[in-house]
Amino acid sequence: MTDVVRFAKKNLPMVAVGFVILITIVFVLADRWRRGSFVFGLAALLAAGFRLFLSDDKVGVLAVRSKTFDVAALLAVGGAIVWLAVSIDPLGTD
After folding, report:
1. Is the model's pLDDT at 1 over the cut of 80?
2. 5-44 burial, b if ≥16 CB within 10 A, otherwise e?
3. CA-CA 20 to 30 A from 70: which of 41, 44, 56, 88?
């Protein structure tokens, strides 16, 4: 196995979160910043779910500090971003 495949296999949750962030970038570049913000918040919530339900050796680089801190921080940030994206008045934009 090559190093890239081995890295991706070990860090599959981070690869999945990175893919969602890539979708966010596409939305923002297409001038859909509210949708991009919403999807970015979902990426943080997805990371929190991975960190909560997967063991430390399977979560890869998403494990930064203790599980409790990581999950709480990701839930707070992801929830705040989703709430802001939903609550902002669109003023004729998406």
Report:
1. no
2. eeeeeebebbeebeebbeebeebbeeebbbbbbbbbbbbb
3. 88
Q: Which phi and psi angles does 34 have, rounded to 5°?
A: -70, -45
| Token representation of residue 85 | 């994206």
Per residue in 10-23, pLDDT (tens digit) is 788 998 999 999 99
Residue 90 has pLDDT above 80, yes or no: no
This prediction has a pTM of 0.85
Going from the C-alpha of 68 to that of each of 9, 18, 23, 25, 78, the distances in angstroms are 24, 22, 28, 29, 15
Closest CA to 52 of 32, 66, 35, 40: 66
| Structural tokens at position 59 | 């979560």
Side-chain-facing half-sphere of 60: CA atoms under 13 Å: 16
pLDDT at 93: 60
